[in-house]
Design brief:
single chain, about 425 residues, alpha/beta, 5-stranded mixed β-sheet, PLC_EF-hand-like, PI-PLC_fam
């Protein structure tokens, strides 16, 4: 037991006792076996690392680093019992090697949680910060396996920029982001990197993207054999050192101005400002349940799959063939979104709010969907300071891609790709 004294009301003191972890007898015995007169020197610690920890390749320099990190400046000649006990439970003394994989990585990709970034190119807040390739590099060095890029025509409409659309963020050229991904994709892990593209381009610019991606990634790029939707996702083990593109199948380009939206009786709310991959379909699904019909919602036209075959003819074939993980959703509301197609797999994206509402009524369907398909959950649009949400709801429903804002100081989970 140790004691601490606190001032109360600025006039008198109170003394409190609090418990301190004490080394159990087994640890004391172990320490005695590898210490001399109450001190575990660097050489004795090295013996302990080799004999007990089975670190056959441990060196004296590594043992000295442990002593330096676990002891005060006045006791750099070795470890006392308390310092040794703290070292055993330190983060640096993990029971599993961070450089080794201890799971079966031969199952389909949908069987794993994947470390995912949100708006990976932003340096700060979601409204006015700069866009750069540097945050992408930092994310990859942290082990992120899913990088998100929002691609838009540049000011001259003859090139491609990456930026958070309809905000004050400054753009960065797409080619810089792609080169950064190529150079740093596998700095900390050989398992695949998925690049999700939020595509706001014309067919002509889509063809440019296809050329860029093919030239820059080269043999790293994974594409489906026939250029069609996959029937089952490959395993992480089979995708080592590969980069996958995930986006919606290309659709006919339609430039819409703010005036056009106002003329339609729509104001620029959060969804228009922040963009969305899946509209708020909870309301529509309730009307479907109530009326027992499949009424269409005009707001969902951009996300329907029914017109894809006709529209794809207007899209460059090179761009379509790059898409390894197709995204999007069908008509009919959430019940249709969560239907499992035995002949193809896909990615569905929901905001944190959409998932929370959907999980109240469709929890089983969500879990069933994620057994074969990928579910990506991203922060709601009002998180303009790049804050993050509690990922447990998404993980507990099987969401593999829980997207984090990497721009802020946050205790991210220590995972790259791990089994669910």
């Amino acid at each position: 037991m140790s004691k601490q004294t606190y001032k109360v009301c600025f006039c008198f003191r109170r003394r409190y006792r609090h418990t301190v972890s004490v080394a159990p007898p087994e640890i004391k015995t172990l320490f005695d076996n590898y210490s001399d007169k109450g001190l575990m020197t660097t050489d004795l610690l090295l013996r302990f690392l080799i004999d007990v920890q089975k670190q056959d390749k441990a060196t004296r320099e590594e043992a000295q680093e442990i002593v330096n990190a676990s002891s005060s400046l006045l006791h750099r000649n070795g470890l006392h019992l308390d310092a040794f006990f703290k070292y055993l439970f330190a983060v640096t003394n993990s029971p599993l090697s961070s450089q080794e994989v201890h799971q079966d990585m031969d199952a389909p990709l949908s069987h794993y949680f994947i470390f995912t970034g949100h708006n990976s190119y932003l340096t700060g807040n979601q409204l006015s910060s700069d866009c750069s390739e540097l945050p992408i590099i930092e994310a990859l060095k942290k082990g992120v396996r899913v990088i998100e890029l929002d691609i838009w025509p540049n000011s001259d409409e003859d090139g491609i920029d990456v930026l958070h659309g309809r905000t004050l963020t400054s753009p960065v050229e797409l080619i810089k982001c792609l080169r950064a991904i190529r150079e740093h994709a596998f700095d900390v892990s050989d398992y695949p990197v998925v690049v999700t593209l939020e595509d706001h381009l014309t067919p002509k610019l889509q063809a440019k993207v296809a050329e860029m991606v093919t030239d820059i990634f080269g043999e790293m790029l994974f594409t489906p054999p026939s250029g069609e939707c996959l029937k089952e996702f490959p395993s992480p083990a089979s995708l080592k050192k590969r980069i996958m593109i995930s986006t919606k199948p290309p659709k006919e380009y339609k430039a819409a101005t703010d005036d056009d939206l106002v003329k339609k009786g729509r104001s620029l709310g959060d969804e228009e400002v922040w963009g969305r991959e899946v509209p708020s379909f909870i309301r529509r699904d309730r009307s479907v349940d109530k009326n027992d019909s499949n009424g269409d919602d005009d707001d969902d036209d951009d996300d329907d799959d029914d017109g894809d075959d006709k529209i794809k003819k207007n899209a460059p074939p090179e761009y379509k063939h790059l898409i390894a993980i197709q995204a999007g959703k069908p008509k009919g509301g959430i019940t249709e979104c969560l239907k499992v197609d035995p002949d193809k797999v896909r990615r569905l994206s929901l905001s944190e709010e959409q998932l929370e509402k959907a999980s109240e009524k469709y929890a089983k369907q969500i879990v069933r969907f994620t057994q074969r398909n990928l579910l990506r959950v991203y922060p709601k649009g009002t998180r303009i300071t790049s804050s993050n949400y509690n990922p447990l709801i998404a993980w507990s429903h099987g969401a593999q891609m829980v997207a984090f804002n990497m721009q802020v100081s946050f205790q991210f989970p220590q995972l790259h790709i791990v089994a669910r």
